[in-house]
Amino acid sequence: MARTPASSQAASSQDSFEKVFAIPEICGRIARSLDRTTLTSCSRVSREWNASWLPILWRTIDAGKHWRHPAFQEALGRHGDLIRILECSRYDDIGLIFNTDTILCRNLVTLVLPKTTLANQADHVRLIRQNPHLRNLSVSFHDDPSSQYSDLVAAISGLRLLRKIAFDENKTLEVSTLEAILRGCNSSLQELSLKDTYFLKHPFNSAEEFASGLLAISDPATGDSLDPLSRDKDIETKEPFGILSLCMDGVACLQDLLLNLGSRFPLLSRLSLRKTAEVYFSWDFSARLAQRCPKIKHLDISETEDMDDEAIARFISSFPSLQNLQASDTRFGNKSLATLVTGCRDLAVLDITATSGVQGQLVQQLLEKCTQLRELNCWDVSTNVVEMMLGAFRTRRGAAAADGETFIAADGSIIRTGDAYNPDLQGQWMCRGLESLSIRFDYDPSPLTIDEQRLYPVSRARQFVYEQLSKLTGLKYLAMEAEFYANNEEDSLEGEGDYDNERDDGNNNIWIDLSLRSGLETLAPLKNLHTLSYSRLNHKVGMSEIQWMSKNWPNLRLVNGLDEDEDSEIIEWLEKNRPDIDIDDY
């Protein structure tokens, strides 16, 4: 029977539909936004869909109760070879994998083993040996010394492609075990994780027998060194390992452990000390660490309580090649930021969220001088725009006497400082490659004299912020908050001219509100903006502003700040005219 034109068109559409979903890359991108229940439903639509979605559904098996579910056990026998990432909890029995005549799970890339005991060691060894192409492995020993797991150690040491190994929360890992595994996998291993381990009463202790070249020796009474580097002594040089990343998150230890580990990792470029406790760094610790690991470029000290502003500054000065610094929820302050600005010109990522606060002039210097900056997060940190303007003015005034300096900005443009070369650039944010910015702009006139307050009114400060932002044309993510601090209630926003007279809500705290009347049009060059968050601004963006953003920022896909109840009309307009823009109301 011949097809009618309508049926032919429907069949052609269906064929195209099937072809699209036969492309793994498309299915993979869609799958990132779907839960497992939806993925299961997709795999049951047709044979073609089953072939496309089943590998995605089975690619990752997380730890959970499904291990004890009969349906999962039955399906495991049929689809085990599709698994690439297998994560197990301490209660999951991987013996199920071997309860069949078929060899399952032979194509793993990532494996998180349940806690290894003397009883289940044979199964763990078997699983590792039938997956010689493992890239990532997490191992945890039971309360027995790790030397009793020689078969497991031998199996791990035979993994020639292993890139990362984690011994997280291991209470009985011995130095000899780590030494054997690192030596066996040295040709490929790049990442080592020992996080969430209490090393103070651990077989590792200070890892003295692991150290090479220099041995760290602390004062037994205080744990501190008496003189710079004087507590290091030369010892036998041992084989270095090619570890590039060391994770010590949530670790309680002596600083000697870090120094002795570092002595075997001269190529170390990433070090994470997030949430470390009871370390009590001596004043020369960072210099001693830099002597062992001079190539560190990525440093995470977030939520570390044992470092004050001065200690963090010393850390920064010891690693001038630093490119990524994570220092949120620390005592990072003015001294640390000043050291960063003067010493780390290659800085690309900085996170100082919820730190103790820094001067606006130093933030201004950061944005002027760190030209390679790609991401800056200083959320919940008060940045006084008045101080930023004062800093920018002093830069312009001082540049007249400067000979000028030439450097390349992140966007590839050549910039020359000094009034004789380009006076328009003095005081400008030169991090033109910035892609992500989370910042709080405050207006606090308290540092100003009466005459200076006339020079830097609110209107000029707001214009300063808008104009500086408008130069960041590569910006993709922008999150803003703003507060206004008046000297007294009577002069809160006086002298604002027409803009002040147009305000009808009487809210004296509004000074940056992303409204058209305040100068939003200045931000039109931000064509690459993907995400805008203004949930902490006092002003609610209106319909005219949303329509302007929709027209002028074609890549905008996410807005955080709209309220489903108060902004229902705006949301309805977006759903009709820009359905590609999501509304994030968390």
From TrEMBL:
Q: What InterPro entries does this protein's entry cite?
A: F-box-like_dom_sf, LRR_dom_sf
Gene3D superfamilies hit by this protein: Ribonuclease Inhibitor (3.80.10.10)
Q: Name one GO biological process term.
A: SCF-dependent proteasomal ubiquitin-dependent protein catabolic process
Gene Ontology CC annotations of this record = SCF ubiquitin ligase complex
Q: Do you know which SUPFAM superfamilies this protein is assigned to?
A: F-box domain (SSF81383), RNI-like (SSF52047)
Q: Which PANTHER family match?
A: PARTNER OF PAIRED, ISOFORM B, PARTNER OF PAIRED, ISOFORM B-RELATED
Q: What protein name is recorded for this chain?
A: F-box domain-containing protein
Lineage of producing organism:
Eukaryota, Fungi, Fungi incertae sedis, Mucoromycota, Mortierellomycotina
